[in-house]
Design goal:
The complex is a heterodimer of chains A (about 325) and B (about 350). By secondary structure, chain A is an alpha/beta fold. Chain A has 13 helices and eight strands. Classes of the chains: A alpha/beta (about 325), B alpha+beta (about 350).
Chain lengths: ~325, ~350
């Protein structure tokens, strides 16, 4: 797969179709992959990589990259294409300056889950069939791939590319893998239990802003939390509810626009399950306005930005007992 | 050298906690180790290190520094400083122990930071030797021996026992709290462990990380390197690396309007943020390239230039593990270092 992608990138560079390639660059230990914009065949040779650890969603980089001179080739996994479409819909990326190659994805691995087996000192990881062979300075270990997926991949919502100019590998189907199961568990809690659950999770927040900065739905020129004139700017908690407010405001701001790409939870250094806040709102929208998937296309008016006479009344939420 | 059977670890913690607050690494429900206050029933984590560093205990993320209470036309200024209580920080790794000496250079230089100083004076650091370093570890590049950690008291877990040795005068004094549990021991098990760890360190992928070329004389050359553009290009501008870093020490001072006064607090700041060191004329570093460069120039050039060659990094590897785009100081050193 990696070699086919690289060859195609070289061809498109050479025939002048694109002048840059947005992809992933190899790091020091197989899994520490950095997004990168490659400008030449030499750069591609030096580090272009596509493997089980290319979890980063590259769509957001196109907000700035699509405004540069020339056309850029972007390699997008199925879930990345939803973010891409949503950004096109919001006029945040310039579609005409991007050549999209959709690439097949079998799910991406979470190095922390591999390490949770007590594996450390990793010097190499090979993918073989349904498992990983991990070479460490302490010996060789094997890990089942199924046990090492990123959370979002364990409940993959779609293997289908909703946008592409060209496809490498197979296109898949929209899936139903139970991504709302945990939301339903939390809904089943009592109000006090739920409050305690979220207070506990959000209390670990260190306000590094990684969730916001990686989020493809967070593309404000200046975030309210960075704006000193907003009255809400804060680098750290002035009181014990500050972090809670930050995450709740963010979840509401991306409501109806969040594609559930899961990057927020992937990057959180404190393992806060931030995706659950977004999924709760997605589930509510599905229930109150009919099923809606942000990023599925670039035209449909989102339920929260369109008025219809059939819209749910505000009182509906009260009838649900605050759930 | 003194030792205690590992089966009596709970007795040890009970005795210490009876005298002073005891903080040690604990596994959390989300599978990470974090420093927590010990109480009966709490188990010490066996993880190599905590996600957040131990610096929090001397330099917390947020602390109030002064209150202004306003009544009519009167403003009362309240000094909110309290003398820190005595506490013991247990299970600190060699890298984090070294980070305290780096923070000391910043906060204890005259005029000393009284908030930090009080905590340093009242805190006792008991370190624990590493036996299973990870691929992200590169403390040896900074002259740190993970098998021989500093701190006030050093500890080793070997062959079913935990060994102790006081390092500082404070350590020699504080070991008295639990000395009644310890018995004299020879150091053969510890010696063997040190040798084994040294062999492992040599096998680590970053063991050869070379800091040659990072010194005060190279300031202009490194600052002007065209490679910063490539290194910083994809940086998200979040503060993860700075907040989990044991040596990052920049902070901001902010006012919180309480409605009937002002609570002035300081909080960690990040050079990765767009308003970092913002002045009346605006932000001195306009792009992420400049912010990114600042972080690494500070650690690898400016800090050693002002502090007898001591780098502002201890090779703990936290930023290697946590950066959302896996860009980090090891990659910077490899890209910009001399051959």
């Amino acid at each position: 797969m990696q070699e086919i992608m690289k060859k195609r990138a070289e061809e498109l560079l050479q025939d002048g179709s694109v002048n840059r390639i947005l992809g992933w660059k190899a790091g020091e230990f197989v899994y520490d992959i950095t997004p990168f914009v490659f400008g030449s065949a030499e750069e591609l040779d030096q580090g272009f990589v596509y493997n089980d650890f290319c979890g980063n969603n590259l769509s957001k980089y196109l907000v700035s990259e699509s405004r540069k001179e020339g056309k850029i080739l972007a390699f997008l996994k199925p879930c990345d294409t939803y973010s891409f479409n949503q950004l096109v819909k919001e006029h945040r990326i310039l579609r005409e300056n991007i050549y999209v190659i959709g690439i097949e994805c079998g799910g991406k691995a979470d190095i922390d889950k591999i390490k949770a087996n007590g594996i450390s000192g990793i010097v190499g990881i090979e993918s073989c069939g349904s498992g990983f062979t991990v070479d460490t300075i302490y010996g060789r270990e094997t890990v089942e791939k199924n046990s090492a997926f990123l959370e979002r991949c364990t409940v993959c919502k779609s293997k289908k590319h909703v946008v592409y100019d060209e496809l490498i590998g197979e296109d898949g189907e929209v899936l139903d893998a139970g991504r709302f199961d945990m939301v339903e568990k939390i809904e089943a809690m009592t109000t006090d239990e739920r409050f305690e659950f979220w207070r506990g999770e959000l209390s670990r927040c260190i306000r590094c802003n990684a969730c916001r900065n990686v989020c493809p739905a967070c593309t404000c020129e200046r975030c309210v939390f960075d704006n000193e004139n907003s009255g809400a700017a804060s680098k750290a908690s002035a009181d014990t509810f500050e972090e809670n407010m930050y995450h709740i405001i963010r979840a509401f701001h991306v409501a109806g626009r969040c594609t559930d790409c899961g990057e927020c939870s992937r990057v959180c250094p404190q393992n806060i399950p931030l995706h659950l806040l977004n999924r709760k709102i997605i589930l509510d929208i599905d229930e109150l306005y009919g099923e809606f998937q942000a990023g599925e296309d670039t035209e449909t008016c989102a339920p929260l930005t369109a008025f219809t006479k059939e819209d749910a009344e505000p009182g509906t939420v009260n009838k649900k007992g605050g759930n | 050298m003194l030792k205690l059977s590992l089966t009596r670890l709970d007795d040890l913690f009970t005795v210490i906690a009876d005298k002073e607050s005891l903080y040690l690494p604990v596994d959390t429900a989300v599978g990470q180790a974090q420093f927590k206050k010990w109480e009966s029933g709490v188990k010490m984590s066996t993880a190599l290190n905590t996600v957040r560093s131990a610096k929090d205990y001397f330099f917390p993320q947020t602390e109030n520094i002064v209150d202004f209470r306003i009544q009519g036309k009167n403003i009362e200024i309240v000094d909110t400083r309290n003398e820190s209580e005595d506490f013991i920080l247990f299970g600190v790794r060699a890298c984090d122990a070294k980070s305290f000496t780096i923070l000391d250079k910043v906060f204890l230089a005259e005029p000393a930071d009284t908030f930090y100083k009080s905590r340093r004076e009242h805190g006792t650091v008991i370190t624990l030797a590493c036996t299973r370093p990870e691929e992200t570890c590169f403390c040896s590049a900074f002259g740190i021996d993970p098998a021989n950690p500093a701190g006030d008291i050093s500890a080793w877990i070997a062959e079913g026992d935990i060994y102790f040795e006081a390092v500082t005068k404070k350590g020699a004094d504080r070991i008295g709290i639990f000395a009644s549990l310890l018995k004299d021991a020879d150091d053969s098990a510890v010696k063997a462990q040190k040798e084994a760890t040294a062999e492992i360190m040599a096998k680590l992928p970053l063991s050869g990380l070379n800091l040659k070329g990072f010194h005060a004389d190279a300031l202009n050359e490194k600052f002007r390197s065209p490679k910063w553009a490539e290194l910083s290009k994809m940086c998200l501008g979040c503060g993860t690396c700075t907040f989990i870093c044991p040596t990052c020490q920049c902070y901001d001072i902010r006012d919180f309007d309480t409605g009937h006064g002002v609570r002035r607090f300081r909080c960690w700041d990040s050079c990765m943020y767009s308003d970092f060191t913002k002045m009346s004329a605006g932000d001195p570093r306009h792009t992420q390239l400049e912010r990114f460069r600042q972080r690494f120039m500070h650690k690898l050039i400016y800090f050693p230039a002002n502090n007898d060659g001591v780098y502002g990094c201890v090779g703990c590897g936290r930023c290697l593990a946590r950066c959302p785009i896996s860009m980090n100081i090891a990659k910077v050193v490899k890209t910009l270092g001399d051959e």
